[in-house]
Amino acid sequence: MELPESYQQEMKQLLKEEYPDYLSALHKPALHALRINTLKISVPDFLAAFPYDLSPVPWCSTSFYYHQDGITTDPYDYAGLYYVQEPSASLPASVLPVEPGDKVLDLCAAPGGKTTQLAAKLQGQGVLIANDISVSRCQILLRALERAGVKNSIVTSAAPSQLSDLFAGWFDKILVDAPCSGEGMFRKDPAMRTSWLEKGPDYYAPLQKEILANAVHMLKPGGRLVYSTCTFSIKEDEEVIQDALDRFCDLHVVPVPYADGFVQNAYGTKLFPHRIKGEGHFVCLLAKDGSSEKHIEKQDVAFAKDGMQVTADHAQIRRIKEKILLEPDIDIDLHGIRVLRSGLLLGEDKGKQFAFSQPMAMAMREEDAENCLYLSRKDERVMRYLRGETIDIHDEPVKPGWCLVCVDHNPLGFGKVTGHILKNKLSSSWVMH
Ligand SMILES: C[S@@+](CC[C@H](N)C(=O)[O-])C[C@H]1O[C@@H](n2cnc3c(N)ncnc32)[C@H](O)[C@@H]1O
């Protein structure tokens, strides 16, 4: 589909002599990137082990372009070692200065690309509230957090106005990756051009202003907030920031580091597909005046059973019927808010036996298990295990009973060893099809 006429006029005004370059960029293929999950593996260790060609995305130290197929069916993807993320989408969370121990809110979080990036920055310390108004999209978000091995998140599905007073002045860092008209997606997803005609900047701008105002209300003095969109419209970007600056006199814009091709003004940074290798984004970093203190907790063993353990920062064990969860200990009563998951699901306690959950395996490190089966990524048993099959044990030194199955030292899931057989304990919804 052609670009909508009124959009063409807006972009001509915005880009002036660069407009033809923008148009020709729309005919080039979209670019693909993956972001290494540094909650599980360091960048050098991942690059040393991963067999595909990767090249760095200039504005995000954990993001890399890839050019091959097969990335989304690789065992390392299954192990949560990376997340496939459009290159320019890695900028917002990379400029939010999240530190371990922070209380972080991702207000429009689903499907979870930026949430998992924020969780990696927290390194398991502090708490991450991941919210999205759409319950169905929250299910995808929850799975992304589980696969990434995140222990300290709470997934809620609420309108920002429902959270605003409850969490007034509570968060150190907030990401508002707002719903938008998606102009930056026109190359990757031409269907966005049709939805732009139905819901364009005039539809989204009032919604974005309201979402951002609620977010600022939840930010601590001294806190930082990123507002981002994947659109170029001044109405949805600069004018939304101006509205927040008009409403909150203790708010100001903070410059973000420049990378080649960025377009920067007093409101933020724009990424255009003819200037950078990516689809397009707008990012603004805001600071609230003042200062606040926080302290980092040390990680303790929080749960241990049958030779498997999970460590956590400031967490408590909670039982909901048979389900056992490791829950971040926050001082806010979430009664009345739809909570899809609070913390990490450890497993189900059925009296005589305890069944470990797949999210627990994803949140463990090899040293958290007394009994591990180590498989190399070249071993054909890796894919058989991921397909839910029983696998043979060769001469690996594993003991009978619960066992953590690892690919190159990275946990994939549980099994139970009897003799020379490993019975597969992947739950059906995690089996690779
Ligand atoms: C751009 S997407 C977020 C993408 C996500 N941050 C990521 O990186 O994977 C915007 C999200 O805002 C949510 N949304 C729509 N209206 C909303 C509202 N009024 N309040 C909060 N979230 C809203 C949508 O469901 C959608 O998931």
UniProtKB/TrEMBL annotation:
<feature type="binding site">
    <location>
        <begin position="108"/>
        <end position="114"/>
    </location>
    <ligand>
        <name>S-adenosyl-L-methionine</name>
    </ligand>
</feature>
<dbReference type="Pfam" id="PF01189">
    <property type="entry name" value="Methyltr_RsmB-F"/>
</dbReference>
<feature type="binding site">
    <location>
        <position position="177"/>
    </location>
    <ligand>
        <name>S-adenosyl-L-methionine</name>
    </ligand>
</feature>
<keyword id="KW-0808">Transferase</keyword>
<protein>
    <submittedName>
        <fullName>RsmB/NOP family class I SAM-dependent RNA methyltransferase</fullName>
    </submittedName>
</protein>
<dbReference type="GO" id="GO:0003723">
    <property type="term" value="F:RNA binding"/>
</dbReference>
<feature type="domain" description="SAM-dependent MTase RsmB/NOP-type">
    <location>
        <begin position="1"/>
        <end position="289"/>
    </location>
</feature>
<keyword id="KW-0949">S-adenosyl-L-methionine</keyword>
<feature type="active site" description="Nucleophile">
    <location>
        <position position="230"/>
    </location>
</feature>
<dbReference type="Pfam" id="PF17126">
    <property type="entry name" value="RsmF_methylt_CI"/>
</dbReference>
<dbReference type="InterPro" id="IPR001678">
    <property type="entry name" value="MeTrfase_RsmB-F_NOP2_dom"/>
</dbReference>
<dbReference type="InterPro" id="IPR049560">
    <property type="entry name" value="MeTrfase_RsmB-F_NOP2_cat"/>
</dbReference>
<feature type="binding site">
    <location>
        <position position="132"/>
    </location>
    <ligand>
        <name>S-adenosyl-L-methionine</name>
    </ligand>
</feature>
<keyword id="KW-0694">RNA-binding</keyword>
<dbReference type="InterPro" id="IPR018314">
    <property type="entry name" value="RsmB/NOL1/NOP2-like_CS"/>
</dbReference>
<dbReference type="GO" id="GO:0001510">
    <property type="term" value="P:RNA methylation"/>
</dbReference>
<dbReference type="Pfam" id="PF13636">
    <property type="entry name" value="Methyltranf_PUA"/>
</dbReference>
<dbReference type="InterPro" id="IPR031340">
    <property type="entry name" value="RsmF_methylt_CI"/>
</dbReference>
<comment type="similarity">
    <text>Belongs to the class I-like SAM-binding methyltransferase superfamily. RsmB/NOP family.</text>
</comment>
<dbReference type="InterPro" id="IPR027391">
    <property type="entry name" value="Nol1_Nop2_Fmu_2"/>
</dbReference>
<dbReference type="GO" id="GO:0008173">
    <property type="term" value="F:RNA methyltransferase activity"/>
</dbReference>
<dbReference type="InterPro" id="IPR023267">
    <property type="entry name" value="RCMT"/>
</dbReference>
<keyword id="KW-0963">Cytoplasm</keyword>
<dbReference type="InterPro" id="IPR029063">
    <property type="entry name" value="SAM-dependent_MTases_sf"/>
</dbReference>
<dbReference type="Pfam" id="PF17125">
    <property type="entry name" value="Methyltr_RsmF_N"/>
</dbReference>
<keyword id="KW-0489">Methyltransferase</keyword>
<dbReference type="InterPro" id="IPR031341">
    <property type="entry name" value="Methyltr_RsmF_N"/>
</dbReference>
